[in-house]
Amino acid sequence: MNTEVRGDTEVLSGKPLAALIQQRAHDQTALLDDQGLRPVLAVVVATDDESTHWYVRSIERAAGRAGIGCRIIDLGHDATEQVLASVLTDLSAEPGVHGIILQTPLPASVHADRLVGLIAPEKDIDGANPLSLGRLAVGQPAFAPATAQAVVELLEHFEVPVAGRNVTVVGRSAVVGKPLSLLLLEKDATVTICHSKSGELERYTRPADVVVVAAGRTGLLKGSHVSANAVVIDVGTNVLPDGSLVGDVDEASVTGVAAGLSPVPGGVGSVTTALLLLHTVEAARQQSHATLLTASTSRI
Ligand code: NAP
């Protein structure tokens, strides 16, 4: 594998893996196309935040390249919970839509936890419905949140073993830290989860073979927090006042200490978008299969 190395630290770029996953999504879409089925992803947006709109447009462009339909439903920053609920309920019931994302941030007045529960589990391609998280917890099939899965895929792509290894995850959100910890546990890692009340992080990160940081705090993880040979995956995305994007890892001090570090941008984020597309294609395939089964059983 052709990889960049900075001061003994391998740069774990997500871009080549993202390209492979996009190609897989494209190939599978072509197969479905032969059967007259075009996967469609719906993205529900309710914010004025320019960086969110930029991100959603990047999903739309990537979907187009993979032959996947993408419907952006922009309800405006003042959308009510009632309107959001009704749109999600309709999309969940619409046969022509196979995947649904409820994009954050959402208006402060709405209860995001209630809304994600309205996304039909079979269309919940970003694992937002608590049912999906529950299924992951008991090892049943479900779409994992794409970011959490992107971390696991990135580790596998760079052949970083996790079975029997100590992995420390910094962050315990329902969209990243918790599902990621469940996925790693499923892969036989010994997982330690840290959060804002954990105290000195180095107590948990220094003994770790792999450290994943998903806290949304610029410069949280420094070189002194990790041991040599550790692999560090940076999930954080923080926008600096000058508009540039950085992660949670103090790249300057970790470079030269850790064995590998994923960059921001160009690390986990690019893999995440590609996985959203692959999940949409898989959802479309599963739903068409379920429809065929229902049709054939009703004829018996
Ligand atoms: P979140 O809901 O705000 O959760 C942050 C987590 O980090 C919480 O569990 C919090 O602990 C913990 N935390 C905060 N400060 C800490 C500290 N000083 N020490 C240890 N733990 C600390 O955020 P999220 O949605 O999980 O996202 C995390 C980061 O990932 C953000 O930067 C986000 O933008 C990024 N992200 C990236 C992608 C991608 O595709 N690249 C996708 C999703 C999210 P408590 O639970 O105690 O509050």
TrEMBL record:
NADP(+) binds at G171, R172, S173, T237. Residues 145-287 form the Tetrahydrofolate dehydrogenase/cyclohydrolase NAD(P)-binding domain. One of its GO terms (cellular component) is cytosol. It catalyses: (6R)-5,10-methenyltetrahydrofolate + H2O = (6R)-10-formyltetrahydrofolate + H(+); (6R)-5,10-methylene-5,6,7,8-tetrahydrofolate + NADP(+) = (6R)-5,10-methenyltetrahydrofolate + NADPH. The keyword Amino-acid biosynthesis applies. Pfam families: THF_DHG_CYH (PF00763), THF_DHG_CYH_C (PF02882). Its EC number is 1.5.1.5, 3.5.4.9. It comes from the Bacteria. Keywords: Amino-acid biosynthesis, Histidine biosynthesis, Hydrolase, Methionine biosynthesis, Multifunctional enzyme, NADP, One-carbon metabolism, Oxidoreductase, Purine biosynthesis. Gene3D superfamilies: Leucine Dehydrogenase, chain A, domain 1, NAD(P)-binding Rossmann-like Domain. CDD domains: NAD_bind_m-THF_DH_Cyclohyd. Residues 12-126 form the Tetrahydrofolate dehydrogenase/cyclohydrolase catalytic domain. One of its GO terms (molecular function) is methylenetetrahydrofolate dehydrogenase (NADP+) activity. Homodimer. PANTHER family: C-1-TETRAHYDROFOLATE SYNTHASE, CYTOPLASMIC (PTHR48099:SF5), C-1-TETRAHYDROFOLATE SYNTHASE, CYTOPLASMIC-RELATED (PTHR48099). Catalyzes the oxidation of 5,10-methylenetetrahydrofolate to 5,10-methenyltetrahydrofolate and then the hydrolysis of 5,10-methenyltetrahydrofolate to 10-formyltetrahydrofolate. Belongs to the tetrahydrofolate dehydrogenase/cyclohydrolase family. HAMAP family: THF_DHG_CYH (MF_01576). This is Bifunctional protein FolD. It comes from Paenarthrobacter aurescens (Arthrobacter aurescens). The lineage of its organism: Bacteria, Bacillati, Actinomycetota, Actinomycetes, Micrococcales.
